[in-house]
Design goal:
The structure is a homodimer of 143-residue chains. Chain A has 143 residues and is mainly alpha-helical. The first copy, chain A, contains six helices and two strands; from the N terminus they run H-H-H-H-E-E-H-H. In chain A, 68% of the residues lie in helices and 7% in strands. The first copy, chain A, binds a DNA duplex (23 and 23 nucleotides) through helix 4.
Chain lengths: 143, 143
DNA sequence: TATTGTTATACTCTATAACTATA
DNA sequence: TATAGTTATAGAGTATAACAATA
């Protein structure tokens, strides 16, 4: 048995492997002209659909003034649009523009390209392991 | 077949799962009083052993003045120590103190604890998938 | 002359506190 | 009175430019 058998060893192995790949994937970024909070905010809107500034701030674990600033920069670049809230006059609803969607797609494509090249070099068995692991990890994070 | 079969779909599935878990793991941090560059610098010293400020800046992909500042804050907190370079009078050699090592150990322990709890809830088959996937990912990142 | 490291200065992201508008 | 959002101001972290010390 060369592989870790106890849960604590498995935990270290999974954490190390995941963090290393995540670091590598983050490094393969497309549009360096967008800052980290900007990209993160766009990604959250893409994942959850239109949200109010307050909801966005909560998702990004950032205080409302910080989100005000990020949204102002994104609006200035035409990447998000604001609409009045249907029932509450204090709130706005922020949504992605089509050009923001294009940037997100391109960003993912670049990263997937790097990963896809490496996945293609693996054996079919290894790819199968990763395919099943991805499903397990999704459940694990969701729990 | 409910699972992705083409490499591009596998790529998206792996990337998404890995990035989500990485985000969750990063969130489980121990000492919030240490900033990200501070922790990153300590981790690099832990991984590579004593380094000069210039080498540290290169590893962290940061300019020398930024590393000067980070090292000053770490030195002030007693987490790194400087020694003169054996042959080059311009350079210093920076190394971890024992209290820095203790922080790093505690940091990892906390994150592994969270992950280990979730791993324990999985079926033995799922854990086996993750164990094998971790090995595959390590090879993939190294390639 | 080239390189290591620091200091000076400016820009970005973040936060808390104070303010306005709406519930 | 409480909440959403913004503005004012300050504190980190980063960068480039300029300087000191050493190779």
């Amino acid at each position: 048995m060369t592989s870790p058998t106890r849960t604590s060893e498995l935990s270290s192995a999974v954490r190390t492997a995941v963090m290393r790949l995540a670091r590598r994937l983050r490094y393969e970024r497309s549009d360096a002209s967008l800052s980290i909070p900007q990209v993160a905010t766009l990604a959250t809107l893409d994942r959850h659909g239109p949200l109010t500034p307050r909801a966005l701030a909560d998702h990004e674990k950032v205080q409302p003034p910080s989100m005000t600033r990020t949204l102002a920069s994104l609006e200035e670049r035409g990447l998000v649009a604001r609409a009045p809230h249907p029932t509450d006059g204090r709130q706005h609803v922020v949504s992605l523009t089509s050009s923001a969607r294009a940037i997100l797609v391109e960003d993912r494509r670049l990263r997937d390209e790097w990963l896809a090249r490496r996945l293609a070099e693996l054996s079919p068995e290894d790819r199968d392991v990763l395919r099943r692991a991805a499903a397990v990890l999704e459940r694990l994070v969701a729990s």
